[in-house]
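Re: weekly structure request thread

Next one in the queue (239 aa):
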Amino acid sequence: MSSHLLEHESRQSGLLHDADQHVELSQGFYARHGKRALDMVSSALGLTVLSPVFVFVSCCIRLTSDGPALYRQVRFGKDGREFRILKFRSMVANISDKGPGITVSGDQRVTTLGRFLRRYKIDELPQLWNVLRGDMSLVGPRPELPVYVVDYTPEQRAVLSARPGITDPATLAYRHEEEVLAGHENPEQFYRTQILPDKLTRNLAYLRKISLRSDLRIICETIASLFLNSDGSREGRRF
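Done, posted below.
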C-alpha cells in the first residue's frame, strides 16, 4: 500500500476498516469514559502549572539554535486519522525530516539543548495540548509515522482503535532504545523487523486490559525512569 493511498483512506474512513476484528479490546467504564476524563483534567492542569516552563524552554530553544521552538509532525491517531503531534524542537531546523525516521544515540541532527530535553522528556510536554484536544491520551500506544503504519498487519492495526499516548508499556520496555539501535549496522531495518512488532504486541496487550490502576502505574514508572537512568540513555523515538 502506497503512502498516497494510505493518506486517502485515512481521510475517508480511517485505517480500521481492515483491522483484525477478532482482537478484543477493553470495553470497561474506565476505558470508555474515565480515561478521557482523566486526560482532560490532567492535561488542563499540566498546561496551566507548566506554562512558565513552556515559556522558558521556548526561549532557550530560540536562543541556542535557528528555527521555531515547536516542532509539528503528522502522525496517525485514533481510527487511523491524521493529526499533528507537538514537541519542543530538539533537532536542527529544516533537516529533521531528512534521514531515517528514527534517532540513534549520537545522532548529529540533535542539538546540544535537544539532548537534554530528550533525556528528560521535556520535549514531549507540548503533547499535553494534543491530549486536551483529544488527539492523544496520557497513556496509549505511541503514535507512529505513516511510513511505519503502512506495514502494520490487520491485527497490529487494532492499536489504532485507541487514542495514542504520551507514554505506554513499550516506552518503558525500550527506554534504552537509542543505544540499542546504534549497535546495529542497519538501525532502520532492525527497528522495523524486531523492535516495532514487539512494541505493537505489548500495546495490544495493554489495550485488552486498560484500567485506572495500570494507567497510573505506567505514568509513575515513566516519571521514575527519567531520573533512574543515570547513564542518560532513553527511549528511541521518531524525531
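Residues 230-236 have pLDDT under 50 and may be disordered. Strands lie at 70-76, 82-88, 137-139, 165-167.
Next request, please.
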